[in-house]
Hints:
Elements: E1 7-12, H1 18-26, H2 30-37, H3 42-62, E2 68-70, E3 76-78, E4 84-90, E5 93-99, E6 103-109, H4 114-124, H5 127-133, H6 142-151, E7 154-158, E8 163-167, H7 171-198, E9 216-219, E10 227-234
Antiparallel strand pairs: 1-5, 2-3, 4-5, 6-10, 7-8, 9-10
Amino acid sequence: MELGTPKVYIKDVSELEGEAFAKAYKAMTPERRAKIDRLKSEGDRKRSLGAGMLIEEIKSDFGISARVFEDKNGKPDFKGGGYHISISHSGDYAIAAVSHDIIGCDIEKLNRNNRQLISIARKHYSEAEKKLLGLCEPLGEGDEAETEALAKNETVTETCDETETKVGTGNQAEAKAGAKEEEILRIWVKKEAIAHLSGEGLKGLKGFDSCDEETYEFYYPEAPDGYFIAVVTYKEK
């Protein structure tokens, strides 16, 4: 199979029940089975098995004989062969992205709590990302203002010049809050994809800027309903 732009594989792990799980588990490498066995929750075991299945599918499609190894930070890749992979999972899905270039990917379910996401954005997003979202650094009582506004079906829009409180009722306020949550989460997915690309993991999250168009090339494959996927490579210079 020819490979131009990065290719993304998606597996619905909710199908891995009973006999289907046992059959797929048996076909995994010893390393993947050991990884699955270390996991405690059924969901985590399914997602890990799904990731393993996608790896084997990629190897078959591209004739890759090399096994997958993980570096000291847990970043997976093939041992040679001219191909690179990245793996992510969330909810009922596992994904794997393959490319001739070093690659990172992430998938997330769009269902996180709005207040938590705004707090994450303030602490971990770059200035360019916060500007894109219309957020600025909290000035002492910022978090309390968000909480109070959300409790009253209001939405708080912050810029670096002023804070506006816009009152909405019912579905209108809920739609505005949901739109902001989705914007924040989409940037989070892009940042996690960069973290997977770099191999540094989440420890370097604040230093990754998804608005840096000179460094990163993003791709947005079609995702299952309620999910968002981002794939990233380093841009050629």
